[in-house]
Design goal:
Aspartate Aminotransferase, domain 2; seven-stranded mixed β-sheet; Aspartate Aminotransferase, domain 1; alpha/beta; 14 helices; binds 4'-deoxy-4'-aminopyridoxal-5'-phosphate
Length: about 400
């Protein structure tokens, strides 16, 4: 099967919008993806017909919403090939999931003098929760560096690990460089030293097939809104034995078994980690988004997006003074760049006038910018609903901006 781009684009109503009178060229997919009708319709259907708080009701609507939520959990389970559906915890997103692990796993297993390893190319969401933990516990945060092409220096990992290292938190794909990290290899190195691994899949879940059992990953986190689902919903996958051994993080609602003022006991997985009214409608929307992605096929999506990135890279490299940050051999979906003498904000704002949406700034990865001694970049990020014609518009747009700056 190949991508039927015309059919796909019709699924995304927003792609028909005009911006400043120009056809929208949406190249900000790493920040958030647009939503297909199938997802929007599912949300509307539930709000119109079935909405009711889950888990607590005996009535029809409550059962309908509860079933929808649990069905969505099963969809996620199958998508990432988790052994059990209760290993899938719904959170509000990647950031929330990392915070859950940093607080709960961190509380139980990380103490004074222990060590946490992150990489130099992490999103702030996979740095700051660990920094907060390390401050609280007087533990140490260590950093695995990357080289100037944007590839992790894997050869340094084993040397960074000590007997005090408890967890490595690392992204699968960098949101500012596009590097695909060898997470399978990292997990093997870590496990050989008895270290747990959290993989931030915020930028990979929508592009790459992930099998958590095959990878043997301990924790995997991602956001619904980056895989064509709603905002405000995300996933923490964790191995059953780890999640069972971890204390609850937030209290209240469905996470209890029994409450007395003397002692409270906690519910079983996954509910132990889902305090308060869960975001069940968006969980159901996430299920619809994953089904949509599956209906196209991750393999087809990946191959087509790879073609787009390569096409865009070749075109951009012909522009005088343009430098791409992130040139790893294994990369996808993201091109970060600067053009000599043109500030990234100017580039972004002028492209916007042409209907082209790109992101500018540090992309919540300030250490990446510090590595290259720059303040930020322009970032174009691609989805399977983008076309080569849109990349041509983007390329011509950059040329126009360069001409304005007399390049
Ligand atoms: N990690 C990575 C690699 C990301 O790209 C992002 C989003 N830009 C996040 C974490 C945070 O995701 P969210 O804001 O959805 O929690």
């Amino acid at each position: 099967m190949t991508i039927d781009i015309n059919k796909i684009r019709k699924d995304f109503p927003i792609l028909e919008e005009k911006i400043h009178g120009k056809a929208l060229v949406y190249l900000d997919n790493a920040a958030t993806t647009q939503k297909p009708r199938q997802v929007i319709d599912k949300l509307t259907e539930y709000y119109y017909k079935y909405n009711s708080n889950i888990h607590r009701g005996v009535h029809y609507l409550s059962n309908k919403s509860t079933d929808g939520n649990e069905n969505a959990r099963a969809i996620v389970q199958n998508f990432i090939h988790a052994k059990h559906s209760h290993e899938v915890i719904f959170t509000s997103g990647t950031t929330d999931s990392v915070n859950l692990v940093a607080n709960s796993f961190g509380d139980r297993y990380i103490g004074q003098g222990d060590e946490v390893i992150v990489s130099e190319m992490e999103h702030h969401s996979n740095i700051v929760p660990w920094q907060l933990l390390c401050e609280r516990k007087k533990a140490k945060l260590k950093v695995l560096p990357f080289d100037d092409s944007g590839e992790l220096m894997i050869e340094k990992l084993d040397g960074l690990i000590t007997d005090s290292t408890k967890i490595i938190a690392i992204n699968h794909i960098s949101n500012s460089l596009g590097t695909i990290n060898p997470i399978g290899e990292i997990i093997k190195i870590a496990h050989a030293r008895n270290v747990r691994v959290l993989v931030d899949a915020a930028q990979s879940i929508q592009h790459k097939k992930i099998d958590v059992q095959e990878l043997d990953v301990d924790f995997l986190v991602f956001s619904g809104h980056k895989i064509y689902g709603p905002t405000g919903i995300g996933v923490l996958y964790g191995k059953e034995e780890l999640l069972n051994a971890m204390p609850p993080w937030k209290g209240g609602g469905e996470m209890i078994q029994e409450v007395t003022f003397e002692k409270t006991t906690y519910n079983e997985l996954p509910f132990k980690f889902e305090a308060g009214t869960p975001n069940y409608i968006d969980a159901i929307g996430l299920g619809a988004a994953i089904e949509y992605v599956q209906s196209i096929g991750l393999h087809e999506i990946d191959a087509y997006e790879q073609e787009l990135v390569e096409y865009a890279t070749q075109k951009l490299l012909t522009i005088k003074g343009l430098k791409i940050y992130g040139t790893a051999k294994e990369k996808t979906s993201v091109i970060s760049f600067l053009v000599d003498g043109i500030h990234f904000y100017d580039m972004g704002m002028l492209l916007d006038q042409l209907g082209i949406a790109v992101r500018t700034g540090t992309h919540c990865t300030e250490p990446v910018m510090q590595h290259f001694k720059i303040d930020g970049t322009v970032r174009a990020s691609f989805s399977f609903y983008n076309t080569k014609e849109e990349i041509d518009v983007f390329y011509n747009g950059i040329l126009k901006v360069c001409a304005m700056f007399a390049h």
